[in-house]
Amino acid sequence: MKPATFELLQPTTRSEALSALAEAPDETVILAGGQSLVPLMNMRFVTAGRVLDLNGVADMVGLERANGTLSVGAMTRQRDLELSAVAAEACPLLVHAQRYVGYVSTRYRGTVGGTIAHADTVAQVPCAAVALDARMLLESAQGQRWLGTEEFFVGNLMNAREPEEMLTEIRFSVRQTGARFGFAEFVRKAGDFPLVTAAVSLELDGDTWARARVVVGGAAPTPVRLAECEQMLDGRSGLGTERIAEVAARAGGSVSPPDSPFVSVAYMRNLVGVVVRQALEGAVSKGETS
Amino acid sequence: MKQIEITVNGERRRGIVEDRKLLLDFLRDDLHLTGTHAGCEHGACGACTVLLDGHAVRSCLLFSAQAEGHEVTTIEGVGSYPDDLHPVQQGFWEKHGLQCGFCTPGMIMASIDLLNENPDPTDGEIRERLAGNICRCTGYVNIIAAVRHAALASNPTATR
Asked: Fewer Cβ in 10 A, N or C end of chain B?
């Protein structure tokens, strides 16, 4: 349970990090908070000749609200996001989802960029990121590009980053004042890896819902927007028990999870319906969910 | 290999370590501070919990070189038997908060982190905060009682 030998590189600026990465991109893994990567290294599921430690790179840390988005430096600690008043006002869904991730001691080290780059299909922050139309900045020594969540999340534990690129910033949409949100997950032990996650975001156009987002994690290779559920909400008014039940019932049917000996298709579809219902109920009470 | 200097329990400690050496192993093998335990070695059990710059973290998920220039507190640094036990240690004593003791250092470090931030936690808050520390022996009841005891002892105005 000890990692294989590697060289630890410890740059102190973003440009130093990008240059170091460019020297040998195919042999380098990027170390952010380490709460996902180091377990993989300790178990030798990941072995790499070079580990690029970003924990000394101060100019990748920060939270800033500007132009309708919350801009989060990739090395911002999850605990700092969780406790940030700026983030709570700008993106309450994100802050709420963040609380479910691991434990306080993992959130002191774990980073927002790290959990997004790790791209676990069931993870809470990626699910919320999809619901908030997040955009990810991938930088290399040669340039940079912005990706939406559909382009960025490619598969389970797979993202669109090229070897010479690094995720440096994420921008989450700030929803209108009075927008509703909800988040729910099904997990056997608090803080543990959930089986399924759901995030809901609803804005209002007059008295009807607009820009509805119903996102589920864990039922597909990436967190997915349930378009049919969103269409049941956009342009309609109210979110009573019957409407919630209708939307939740459609949710299970609109995913195609793989069959597994541990989680059958029927069970997963049922769970999806449950967490979508819970997330919608949370949206009714302005984000207080189970 | 790296030459590192880390402040551990208030003292500057030096070492020459492989880049891959976990902080957990530096503390135990190089500094002979064996109070911090290697449980799962992949971040799930919390037995390796230490304070890094005052916050509870898993030392099995840090490379020693990452702690260079930082302050680490281990279980050896929070108090001493018999005359100077930390209130949390005292609580574990009074409330029989341990059996085999393997999870205990990690539990104590996580509890200290909690009480530093929230001196008057509810039982629910204690449970949530310690959810990342696994105990095979006790069933947790006395651990919660130990932390509650420590909170009351340190905080005369505690309401719970």
From this structure: N
